[in-house]
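Hey L., structure's done. Input below.
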Amino acid sequence: MHVSLPQNFKIVDASAGPVTTNGGVTCDYVSLKGVKRAWIVASFTQAVGHATTVQPQMATAVAPTGATSITASVPGWINEDTAASDTLVAQTAATSFSVAATIKKKQVIVEIDPALFGPTYDVLGCTISNSAQATDFVSVVYFLEMGYAQATPPTHITD
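Output:
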């Protein structure tokens, strides 16, 4: 079975490229309408060690109306040193995921089942905690698995 990444997944730059985690980061919010599953992929470059946290959020609109932290535990994976290895280590399911306070390039992947949000919430976002370090950066991308493949998937940055 052939799967085309851009036809089967909506790929959304949630942080508008690499941004400093100094002061924290609020990522863009995306609608999960028509989405089977979503992944938050956060890639960190830490010049100063900090136990930075990825906190998935849910909302009722991409504004983000009613934004709140997720309450259901979800699967997550972390690679604490992407320069040395491509191995993602499964974490215990949780409502947020933190990297170790080490000077490394890291990656965090969080898997979201939209059904976990219940009938009220249908929007996904995330926040990255304040590292208080101007030289620590993150880039966040959402991968949204669409209900069916299409040459040009619909926008998800509007309701």
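The radius of gyration is 15 Å. The longest strand covers residues 35-46.

-- N.
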